[in-house]
Amino acid sequence: MIGLLDRPTNGEIFIDGTNTTTLVDDEISSFRNKKLGFIFQFSNLLTDLSVLENILLPRQIAGTDNLAEKDALELLKAVDLEDQIHKRANKISGGQAQRVAIARGLINKPSIVLADEPTGNLDSVTSATIVQLMKSMAKKLNQTFIIVTHDREHFGDVDRVITIKDGKAFEGDLPSEMEITA
To answer: For position 88, what pLDDT does the model report?
Structure first.
């Protein structure tokens, strides 16, 4: 619902003071591009584009190219990939691709970054690097990251945890009486 991919059957969703439930399809697409960043489990980079071109894509779609390359280069430096700028997306590692996806998710300076299993297809060392990168970017850029994960322990200390089990939401980690025992 927060990603505006589905509409609620009742109630309203407000993001940055905008009632998103009243938006029509074109407005939803525009709002999503400007206010939301997405980081997927698989980086979903376009393999025929360079690292830089992949990062710039959301800015081009938004039609706000002013300072786009400067912002992209700053993000590439922040994710430690400035030396990969001209490589094709299919020529970089999985961890590098995920860092490009993070930069792409941040290029439009969104209010909320939604990350769906961002470390799900990575080894434990690369996962730890990606988690630390997201945490540092959240602080540095004052971004809100909403991360969906099955690997809660990878994320350590975070501002807020909501656990969902069997359709019920709990503030914090899963209550002990709900834990699965073998």
So the answer is: 95
Q: How many CA atoms lie within 13 A of 149 on its CB side?
A: 21
Average pLDDT (19-43) is: 90
| Domain annotation for the chain: domains and CATH numbers | 39-178 (3.40.50.300)
**Element of type H or E holding 15:** strand 14-15
Half-sphere exposure of 147 (CA within 13 A, CB side): 25
In the predicted model, is pLDDT for residue 177 greater than 70?
no
- How is residue 43 annotated by DSSP? -
In degrees, rounded to 5, the angle at the alpha carbon of residue 164 between the alpha carbons of residues 158 and 168 is 135
DSSP 88: B
H or E stretch including 175? Answer: none
Q: Higher model confidence: residue 173 or residue 110?
A: 110
Please spell the DSSP secondary structure of 116-143, one letter per residue. Answer: ESTTTTS-HHHHHHHHHHHHHHHHHHT-
For residue 107 the two structure tokens come to 């290029």
The DSSP symbol for 89 reads G
Pairing of strands 18-19, 14-15: antiparallel
pTM value? 0.81
Mean pLDDT of the region 55-83: 86
Token pair, residue 28, equals 């939803």
**Mapping DSSP to helix (H, G, I), strand (E, B) and coil, where does residue 50 land?**
strand
